[in-house]
Amino acid sequence: MPISFILLNLKESCVDPVRLRKTNLVSWTPPCHDCLMFNVDGYTRVQPGPAGIDGVLRDSKGHILCLFSLCVGSLDSNSTEILAIHKALQLCASNPSIALSKVSIVSDSKTAVSWSNNKDSFGSFSHLNTILDIKDILSSFQNFEIFFRPRSANAFADGLAKRGSSGEGFGVVWSDS
Length: 177
What we know:
alpha/beta, RNase_H-like_dom_plant, nucleic acid binding, RNase H type-1 domain-containing protein
């Protein structure tokens, strides 16, 4: 399925009308030249409940290189956030041209980012294998980093995750260009 088709169908569904209340907005900022940014998010309607993970990989010009949106069953919010980071890292590591690039994985979950980056913390036991794999990928690909950014800077990824949790996920799509 072409990325342009998915983007046309996502235009309206990735807007969250609940966010009309006044908040401190932080807009998406592109990565530096020759760098890539993978914005990821996880979403759970109830704790635990139907969950989705998603991500959007963009270059310094804002061009979308990859999208993913997946339903991941019934999970809690920390699990979905960890799985979203993990999926982005797996996709980057498995693509030879991306694996050589400097990639920032950006999540709106301070907890998931902390567990992924902290050498001594693994979250709960249920996350152990996923966190260990995240740390293994990070040590193998020193050009990959994981950062926290507020939800408003991750709005597109947030909208995709809500679709994934409702069972409307579309899988993984790489750009043709």
